Amino acid sequence: MSEVTNTNSESWVSKLDQEISNWEYLDGMDPEMHNILRDLLLSNGNITATTTAHRIGGYYEELMKEDPLMKYEADKGFTSFLKMFYYVYFTVAEILPYNNSTKHDDLVQLILELRRLPPRKVTIWRRECLVWGEERVFGDVLWEHWRWGFPFYLEKRDKGVVSYEEECDRWLNVSTHFAHQIRAGLVDYWTEKFDIPIDDISTGLEKELPEPERYYRAMAAAQYILLLGGKIGDCCFDLVGADRLEPERWKRWIEAFAKISSDKENKDDLREAAGKAHSFMVSCHPELL
Predict the structure, then answer these.
(1) CA separation for the pair 58, 67 (Å, rounded)
(2) In angstroms, what CA-CA distances link 245 with 56, 195, 230?
(3) I need a surface site. Which of 136, 161, 195, 208 has the fewest CB within 10 A?
(4) What predicted TM-score, i.e. pTM, was given to this entire model?
(5) Residues in CB range of 264: below 8 A, 6 or more apart
(6) Is 248 exposed, middle or buried (0-12, 13-18, 19+ CB in 10 A)?
């Protein structure tokens, strides 16, 4: 399958540092988590995801020593700890450019390594679960960052905080990261894991949209196909019943990508991504054309 192009730009680092610098004023936010993730992403491979996972586990142990009463709580303090970690994690995913595949994969690998740590049975939101594996905090924070970071339905925000275009950038980045997570099997336990990608692809390719929403929606559709095309194709051709998508939709998407890639009024990066997505889809099912 075609891969999303990597980028060497590190301008995202200054954006992240600027955002994290304000967190000391927010209750419950811990800049140390930012430091841990920052070290991983900027180490050029010198710090592994395995090392970082153990560092995070060790940080939890430090917090336990500072507040020994946590061990008597049903969740052992993990509800707030996980929310804090995942909030920082997905904030990093929002700021990390969508086409920096290597670093998005580094973040995904970190979650896989955390799930290899010795499991702890705790009760979160009145349900027993295993940390770092079968717990609901991960999904809840992911959904919050994808859905509540959705820029296209939001009221106008204070332009001095985050611009509309930056909101769109962040949505594209975190949507692409979600595709990386699906590809790696992080959310295999979600029966509805393809609902978001399929809905976003359909919206980006089948609806008339104003700019810049059209650009971001179409680019997100291309990233989903480049990262998940084979898996999404299975929904069109291999499944039966209500979950099956008609092959005719796959054909419509092929035609939409062809149109986007050939339209010289589109931005070059969108035309390139659409061209790659089109080629991949055609290679999967040339019989449709």
Answers:
(1) 14
(2) 41, 11, 13
(3) 208
(4) 0.88
(5) 271
(6) exposed
